[in-house]
Amino acid sequence: MKISEGIEHFYNYQRLNVKKNTLRNYQFILDKFQKHFGDIKLALITSENILRFMSEVSDGTKQSTKKLRFTLLAAFFNFINDAIDPDFQNPCDNPTLKKLFKAGKPAPFKILEKDVIDEIIFRTRSPRNRLMLELMARSCMRVGEVLKLQPRDIEERKVTIRDPKSGKESEVAFLPQKVADRLKNYINDNGIKPGDKIFPITYAAAKIVVKKAGELVRIHPWPRPVIPIFVVIELIVQSFINNG
């Protein structure tokens, strides 16, 4: 079986069984795989070939990214073996490759205290930047989720997050009442239409906003500030109280 045929069978199966984000990850690695090897027979690919390919496609990336891409490629070969050709030998099933592309130790998360986050927000002068930081800190939204927000996604304190990172069609976040009021006023004051982005800036620009805000108090926060669990619990309790 040639590479193109195997990939077609694999996609036909995965489209029915995985989330959109997972499918995109498969497409990323398999597109590069097919470009690298052309359309040769899968049986001709060796572990040495996989090592060269993985070294090329993962050069300069984090160990976690290398592990993910190797796992996706191995899953493709496992599918060929399990569903199409039981005699096919998975070239990723190699002790050396598994050792090279195993997961690294996760970096510890930095937990920011509530008063530190409050100070970061208070010292941010730009209304737009301050509101973005509040949405991330008070409702635990990611940078990308904040940047996708449109006025039509806001209903009182309820925020619909479309195409979230989880792969679901949508998710819901709840805002503290004061943040919801400030967001509503910002939309009205700037004449933002229902289908327009509330914060029309790039992801890179948003990360700079977070970085500069952290520098005001001499810390380096993540793109989504991490807050103590009691703040999250407080928001959940408030949502139940206010929504009956």
Ends apart, CA distance between termini: 59 Å
Give the percentage of residues in beta strands.
under 5%
Instruction: Summarize model confidence as the mean pLDDT.
Output: 85
Cα-atom radius of gyration: 23 Å
CATH superfamily of the largest domain: Intergrase catalytic core
**CATH class category of the largest domain:** Mainly Alpha
CATH topology of the largest domain: hpI Integrase, Chain A
Number of DSSP helical runs? 11
What profile does the largest beta sheet have?
3 strands, antiparallel
The tally of strands reads 3
Q: How would you sum up this structure, described in words?
A:
- By secondary structure, the protein is mainly alpha-helical.
- It has two domains: 3-100, DNA polymerase, domain 1 (Orthogonal Bundle); 114-242, hpI Integrase, Chain A (Orthogonal Bundle).
- Helix content is 56%, strand content 5%.
- The chain is built from eleven helices and three strands; from the N terminus they run ααααααααβββααα.
- Strands 1-2-3 form a three-stranded antiparallel sheet.
- A hairpin with a 2-residue loop joins strand 1 and strand 2.
- Helix 1 runs antiparallel to helix 2 (20-37).
- The chain is elongated, with a radius of gyration of 23 Å.
Task: Summarize, please.
This protein is mainly α.
Keywords:
hpI Integrase, Chain A; three-stranded antiparallel sheet; 5% strand; mainly alpha; 244 residues; 11 helices; disordered C terminus; DNA polymerase, domain 1
Please describe the topology of this protein:
Layout: H1 3-14, H2 20-37, H3 47-57, H4 63-84, H5 95-100, H6 114-122, H7 127-139, H8 143-148, E1 154-155, E2 158-162, E3 170-174, H9 177-189, H10 203-215, H11 229-242
Antiparallel strand pairs: 1-2, 2-3
Helix pairs in contact: 1-2, 2-4, 7-9
